[in-house]
Amino acid sequence: MSFSVNSISYRYSAEHETVLKEVSFIIKPGQVTAIVGPSGCGKSTLVSILSGVIPDLVSNGEMTGSIEVRQDALISVVSQSPENQLFGYGVEDAIAFGIENLGLDNESIVERVEYVLDLLNIQHLRQRSVATLSGGQRQAVCIASVLAMQPDILILDEPVSSLDPNGKKMIQTVLNSLKDAGQTVIIFDNNLEWSAGIVEHIIGLCAGEVVFDGDKPAFFYDADLLRKLAVTVPQEVEIYHALAKSVPGLNRFFSLSEAKQEIGKLISPSLETTGCAPATSAESASEPDVSVVQTTGLCKTFRDGFNALIDIDATFKQGRVISILGQNGSGKTTLVKHLNGLYRPSKGSVTYRGQSTAGKSVAQISKDIILVFQNPELMLFEETVLRELTFCARAQKIDFNEAEALEVLRRYGLLSHREEFPVNLPMGQKHLLTILSVLFSSAEVVILDEPTLGMDQQQKQLLQEIIRQLKANGKTVVVISHEIPLVFQISDEIMVLNNGRKLMQDVRQILAGCDELFEQINIALPPVVVLARYFGLTPECCDVAAFVAGVTARLGEANETQAERGTAHG
Amino acid sequence: MDDFLQYVELDSFLHKLDPRTKFVFFIVMSVLTSFVRSGVALLFLLLAFGVIWICGRIGIYIIVLAKKVKVLLLFIFLLWLILGVFRVNEGPAIYRTTLSLLNQEVTISLDWFDFYKGAVLSVRVFLMISAFYTVILSTNFSQIILGLRSWRISYALAFGIGLVFQIIPIIVKEFAIIMEAQSSRGLEVEQCSALAKMKNYVIISLPLMFRVLGKGHAISMAMHYYKLNFKVKRTAYKVIQPTYRDAVFAVVLTLVTAVAILLQIRFYIPL
Question: For residues A498 and B194, which has the higher predicted lDDT (pLDDT)?
Fold first, then answer.
């Protein structure tokens, strides 16, 4: 069933600005479409219109245009927070909820529940309670519950935004099954990194207008458009655009195999393979090792007997950016909650500059070690953006300069919102604001738990700037993130946790050579690292800029050799 | 304990009962504890409850409940103890004196019976609360909805009740996370005066309110996505059927009720 949106314009009330302007597009049956655009571009409003929330539930807005779709067509939505969408204690109850609303007989309900459990390969979850599922499993059950209603169009609203790499892989598998089954799917997500292999059609929204409507190669080829829409794309696409500036006539590549092939035409692959073995790098040897926070024999056993941390010895050095990697449940958050005193160790100790943190309250520790949670909505409560920015300073009774605060707001694009209610900001800006507030705290150690949640590419770049600034001020930054390319780009050191144990902590260049370690934790190394090693550019290349510099240097050497040969022959 | 005030998934006799049997248990026990005022009968009921909790493997959760309500129980006990001091009861006295207050003679009499009365009323309240809590611990919200619907209660009401029990644990968890998030930013909630603590709790309640409102909005949208319409007849995937366990439990419940009534008649002392 095809589906067309014709010149839809919408505003929430006469006083509000128009959120969507003459939006038109066609969705073909059986196609997987991605609708992308920066934070605040109108994606959420479009989801509400397509799903019928506008005007069925929100009826006070002004809408013009039309949606051409069969009268009895069913359009269902899977939201980014499955916990708000799953009605039912058990998996079977939750899946059956929507079908029960359709008034089908018991036999048909059973048949449909079995069908979706098989289709999504989640039969093993059927007896589980929803509360015990992992993020990816919960999202898969949510998709199953909606699919069981046999929707003509399935809308997924940022389905992997809070998932770990395992969860993302599970949703990728689910989406591939849906694609094979001919299900029409629309994904609303500004992150195409995880879905690039599945998506066939892309629609770009900017300031409420459609600025792109076409296929994936055409979209990825347009660097200006990618920048304008602040889309997170696969790192191979970033590499292509960065390299194309230095290498005219470079053939397009948007996947790892294509990249190997095309870059392989410029420089030859390396015959050597590197491993975890090299123990030192120039960076680790040259920098001073001033330990700020240290954990010794840290163990945490929860009341139910679960061993969340087992014998963790870790050092967090001054002025370093240290990322903690691992799947959900590996102990990342538990570890950082020990650093700031939210959890007390079952065994072992945490010290800050040699002094134990035991006996201090969390608020007292926050003067030295501050933790920013992944969900900004748990933190915002001031009446204006400006007051929120300076909250930490006021809570910790630290003097601050209002002019300086305004300058920070200006630099990070929040100045025009300074008198607004922070809760009303788009998600990415809310998160940015909570992170910015630590700039006004006295803490020497800043811990950021999933800092990119809800951020578009532009905001992620601002985040990197904040981290660089903190580092430049001599602060230690600890980051927990599932965005592996970002982790390799910003980190000096990476710590890997698995099932509560620390597997490794070292400089990123050394981690980049540890294939077996990453296989063990089921996390893929970033494409730039894989390519750098393939072409023998390791150990330095952990980000796109370094990789491009490495490739162009090799190209220069090759050209010089060729020129020398030419001269010799001449 | 993280799982306070919510269903606990266990494989027990109590958990396998038909939700309607547990609703009947709750109703019978609520009525019974409202009129039973005999210490002996109440002790017997407490014993019977204890056996049910052990069979249901929820004893540890009831201890958690007792810890949470101990202040309330102590308050009830002390209240009746203080009120009893101004009344002279029959039986042995611990301390008795007569004072002259504003030209009137007032007798202060602390009797053993005052302790008995305070204890009886505290146990009654505890049994009332724990009857409800026993059902909550052993019946998940999907079963609550199914049970209520089979009693021809409208789906809107049954769903609303089930939703409350689905949301309560989420809100409890959210509150704890907000506390953690705010204290991590420097808000003192541990080492401060009671007044400062109260003020900080008010601060914490604001993001909680926004989260609850946000959740309410998300849930109403999800209900729309699932085409939930209370005016349309709904069908069900699961069907509940009483088993031999329900019959056994019903017999035990009847016996316990009969014995409690007998003990009440036999050993009642007017309070």
Answer: A498
Residue B140: inside a domain, yes or no?
A: no
What is the DSSP annotation of A494-535?
A: EEEEETTEEEEEEEHHHHTT-HHHHHHTT-PPPHHHHHHHHT
Residue A538 confidence (pLDDT): 63
Q: Which two tokens stand for residue B117?
A: 């009365």
**Are A244 and A226 in the same domain?**
no
Is B229 part of the contact surface with chain A (CB cutoff 8 Å)? yes
Residue A279 — very low, low, confident or very high, per pLDDT cuts 50/70/90?
very low
Nearest to B90 by CA among B106, B112, B105: B112
**Model confidence band, residue A285 (pLDDT cutoffs 50, 70, 90):** very low
Check whether B191 has a pLDDT greater than 80.
no
Do β-strands A347-352 and A62-68 pair in parallel, antiparallel, or remain unpaired?
unpaired
A215 & A249 share domain: no
A354: number of Cβ within 10 Å: 8
| A517 assigned to some structural domain | no
* Portion 160-189 of B in contact with A at CB < 8 A: 163, 166, 170, 174, 177-178, 180-189
Judged against a pLDDT cut of 90, whether residue B193 lies above it is answered with no
One domain, residues A325 and A252: no
- Show the DSSP H helices in A437-506 as ranges: 457-472, 484-490
Q: How many beta carbons lie within 10 A of that of residue A539, not counting itself?
A: 20
| Parent domain of B206 | 155-229
Domain-located, residue B170: yes
Structure-block tokens of residue B72: 């309330």
Per-residue model confidence as pLDDT tens digits over B242-270: 999 999 999 999 999 999 999 999 998 88
Average pLDDT over chain B reads: 90
Residue B169 belongs to a domain:
yes
For residue A271, pLDDT beyond 80: no
Measured from the Cβ of residue B134, the count of other Cβ atoms closer than 10 Å reads 23
Residue B78 falls inside a structural domain = no
* Statement to judge: residues A202 and A90 lie in one domain: yes
Q: Domain total for chain B?
A: 1
How far is the C-alpha of A523 from the C-alpha of A176, rounded, in Å?
Answer: 20
Average pLDDT, integer, range A329-345: 93
Please tell me which residue, B270 or B227, carries the higher pLDDT value: B227
- What ipTM is given for this predicted complex? 0.82
Domain tally, chain A: 3
Within this chain, do residues A85 and A51 fall inside the same structural domain, yes or no?
A: yes
Instruction: Give the C-alpha separation, A219 to A213, whole Å.
Output: 8
List all residues of chain A from 65 to 84 with a beta carbon under 8 Å from chain B: 74, 76-77, 79, 81, 83-84
- Does any CB of chain A come closer than 8 Å to the CB of residue B156? no
Do A329 and A186 fall within a single domain?
Answer: no
Helical segments of chain B, H only: 13-16, 19-35, 39-55, 59-85, 112-138, 141-150, 155-184, 194-225, 244-267
Same domain, A307 and A238: no
Q: Which domain holds residue A246?
A: 234-276+526-570
Q: For A103-162, what is each residue's pLDDT tens digit?
A: 899 999 999 999 999 988 899 999 999 988 888 888 899 999 999 999 999 999 998 887
Q: Is residue A521 domain-resident?
A: no
Q: Is B220 on the interface with A (CB under 8 A)?
A: yes
Is residue A390 included in any domain, yes or no?
yes
- In a shared domain, residues A255 and A128: no
Residue A151 located in a structural domain: yes
Lowest mean per-residue pLDDT among A150-164, A423-437, A550-564: A550-564
Query: Given pLDDT bands bounded at 50, 70 and 90, which one contains residue A375?
Result: confident
* Least confident among A483-497, B109-123, B186-200: B186-200
> Do residue B203 and residue A381 have CB atoms under 8 angstroms apart?
yes
In the numeric block, the tokens 């479009």 are attached to A46
Structure tokens that stand for B106 in this block: 């007032």
Whether chain B has a CB inside 8 Å of the CB on A110: the answer is: yes
